[in-house]
User: Fold this.
Amino acid sequence: MNSVEKILVVYYTQSGQLEEIINNFISPLHAYDLDVVKYSPKVEYPFPWTDKEFWDVMPESVLETPVELSPINYKHDKYDLVILGYQPWYLSPSIPTSSLLQDNDFLKRIRDTPVISVIGSRNMWINSQESIVKRIHSAGGRLIGNVPFIDRSQNQISALTILHWMLTGKKTRKFGIFPKPGVSDDDIAFASEYGDILADAVLNNSIEDIQKSFFAKGEIWIGTDILFIEGKAKRIFKIWSFFIKKFGKPKRKRNLLLLVFKYYLIVALFVIAPIVLSLYFLFVVPLTFRGIAKKKEYLCENYSKW
Assistant:
């Protein structure tokens, strides 16, 4: 008898992109007892976002402050495998995802259970995945696999296009010249190939080594510039978050601080980062490229040992 029969698939989505990814990912698994749960906060976040609301979730995202979720009806008390789909917000798990990973009803279902994370992201997922790893392990789960789906456009371009999408609700080419925002249609379709790998592993009782097979597809990728930015930016986001939470009362003070953060981030992304990265690629990368390559491979292939 196969050791995996009951599979919980749980995810949150606003735009529907992660739902497409998840549906393709699990399409080869419909022979099994699939419990597909699309959960949501009790007070839903808007989509499209207003500019004010988009920035307002930053502190709570970074600090992983939970919100109340709508009731979740699970088919079973225990599963043989859990597939967790999520998206990063401000280099952290989205607030709904952080809330789920602090929900006792969910945590008891991942205890002593293998978990695979499936990420739908702009291009930065390392810091958020580190938090996911810690929370799953502290709950007694075993993270055995991770597949990130990212926007492969250049960093500043993808920032412009994702804002266009988030603030208009339209996954279209901004001004008719920029690439479409988000994960490409080809990459979304490619999710089914990872599902095929998982289906074979389930059939052969070899899911504990699934990440090696995922990584062997050659599509799990981190850009050198993204690795550098993620190594610096999360600490800065935490400082801003603590500062805004401490001094952001009453609401008008919070709004003012968020406005300052917004323009700080724009300057950092479009002015400071290109200069710093140019110096980094010119003077540091040539001397450390082997170490950088090993670190990128380690993060992609050994997602659960951080």
The two ends are 34 Å apart (CA to CA). Residues 78 and 109 are 6 Å apart (CA to CA). The first helix runs from residue 17 to 26. The mean pLDDT is 95.
